[in-house]
Predict the 3D structure of the following.
Amino acid sequence: MNKLGFYPGCSLEGTSREYAESVLATAELFGVELAQVPDWNCCGATAAHNLNRALSLALPARILAKALDAGMKEIVVPCAACYNRLSVTQHELFLDEKLRRETEEAVGLPLSDKVEILNVVQFVERYIEGQLPEKVTQPFGSDVACYYGCLLVRPHDVLQFDRQEDPQAMDRVMRLLGANPIDWPFKTECCGASLSIGRTELVAKLSGRIVREAEERGAGAIIVGCPMCHSNLDMRRPQINKYLGARSKIPTLYLTQAIALACGLDKKQSGTRRNFVKVDWNALRNS
């Protein structure tokens, strides 16, 4: 069994419990043990880097230092915002030796750029994708819209993950699950992110455009890899429906929820029982 570090971040232990459930269940199904980074803390997303630069570096740096101290060479970071902050911090600290020394002093632990940070799609690519042909027992039968959002692919010069405007990694995985990923222009459009509370009407507009485009192109589900994107597209559906002037029924699934369902796991294991918009698995299989 492969053993990897795991940084759940705040969302996966709160508002996105269903994401954590699907990640952990999927990892176990594919022979991967995920061990939490000891004594982890909030990474500071999404506000710290706008308020205090030293704090915005120290928070993710401490997580990386804790992972290093625990002997973790790879850590899976399912939240796109957490993944972005950890990756950008690691990049910045190892470009500036003075800044790295100051940050090490602040966190009280040594840092290394040898800890590899994997977002959920990279984790699936490395440890799950190759086993999918033999594990899929209930393939999708529908079109899907793979939605990457802002933070999985930007800034491209730092993350070096997939194509910036037309990423393909989730599309490839969904094809292995039997789905047909649509070609659409909203793959990396912003959903409104953390404006969900302060500017809900703006989130309804931005996320509403994404939902409408996916439905008009015939998708049966929107596939995501970010808790904030999922929250805005799923939990904010009443506000989206008001903006659209119609009731939208298209569900939003995490990539790991889609894998779990296609591999025969149930609603509890996949976490889909917690989704606000009902996931009609029979419809997605038989479309």
Observations:
- The chain has two domains: 2-120, 134-286.
